[in-house]
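lol forgot to send this yesterday, sorry. struct tokens for the thing we talked abt
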């Protein structure tokens, strides 16, 4: 085996290494691009399906393997349709030279600043009964929804957020989407929940907040225009009657660390 490996290595030239590095780099950049879209979840599902197909063949599970092979055929045919928005957006980003765009992560101080600015803005909006819908992007990218609004890409501040939701302004209607400590877009359209059991008092903002959190892992802050009540939606659930401080306490665990899935879920259950 060692001799075989040495033989393979001896056949690899410098040009082959350059070729592999370029391919790996391009694949990584493509991953970074789709990481900010729902396409990543679909891609993960496809990988799981492929692994299951290989394992079923290896174990000799002929019926399961046949079903998985047929499913894979259907999925591969449907891929261009399912990924059409992502494919188009990726090509546009390549054309705009965004292949080398770097990701930005927040440190603890930036996270606290973000929560402070968000808390101040929400307190003012609630006091003046100004309706607001603020989406905080997490692991699941929201580029699909950012495209539906007015591009902003500005640093989060309480004054900026308040100004966005002032009535009778171009960006008042719709949602503001935050990625890290930047407001990516405002006036964005969100999917409404299909849950018919919700309280009839909940308006379009609340239903949109629940709808987007049913489809993604985002957190959404809602300020009611009628009552000034502050609410927070996550995982298709809505917690109401919050103030600025309790809102920050609910949001803080979401920024605690990158590996937060179980811990944040438990925190969310505790505060709910």
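and heres what i got for the seq, position by position
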């Amino acid at each position: 085996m060692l001799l075989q490996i040495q033989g393979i290595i001896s056949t690899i030239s410098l040009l082959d290494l350059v070729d592999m590095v370029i391919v790996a780099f391009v694949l990584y950049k493509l991953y970074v691009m789709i990481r900010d879209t729902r396409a990543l979840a679909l891609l993960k599902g496809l990988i799981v399906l492929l692994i299951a197909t290989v394992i079923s063949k290896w174990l000799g599970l002929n019926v399961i393997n046949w079903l998985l092979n047929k499913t894979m055929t259907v999925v591969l045919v449907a891929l261009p349709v399912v990924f059409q928005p992502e494919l188009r957006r990726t090509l546009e980003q390549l054309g705009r030279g965004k292949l080398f765009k770097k990701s930005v992560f927040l440190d603890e101080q930036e996270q606290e600043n973000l929560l402070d600015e968000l808390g101040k803005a929400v307190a003012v909006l609630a006091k003046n009964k100004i309706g607001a819908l603020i989406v905080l992007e997490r692991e699941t990218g929201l580029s699909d929804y950012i495209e539906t609004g007015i591009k902003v890409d500005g640093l989060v501040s309480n004054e900026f957020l308040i100004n966005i939701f002032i009535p009778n302004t171009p960006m008042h209607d719709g949602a503001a989407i935050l990625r890290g400590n930047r407001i990516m877009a405002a006036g964005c359209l969100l999917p409404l929940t299909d849950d018919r059991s919700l309280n009839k008092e909940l308006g379009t903002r609340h239903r949109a907040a629940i709808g987007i959190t049913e489809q993604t892992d985002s957190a959404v802050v809602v300020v009611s225009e009628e009552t000034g009540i502050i609410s927070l939606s996550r995982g298709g659930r809505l917690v109401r009657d919050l103030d600025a401080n309790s809102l920050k306490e609910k949001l803080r665990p979401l920024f605690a660390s990158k590996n937060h899935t179980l811990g944040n879920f438990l925190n969310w259950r505790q505060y709910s």
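The chain has eleven helices and seven strands. anyway ping me if u want another try
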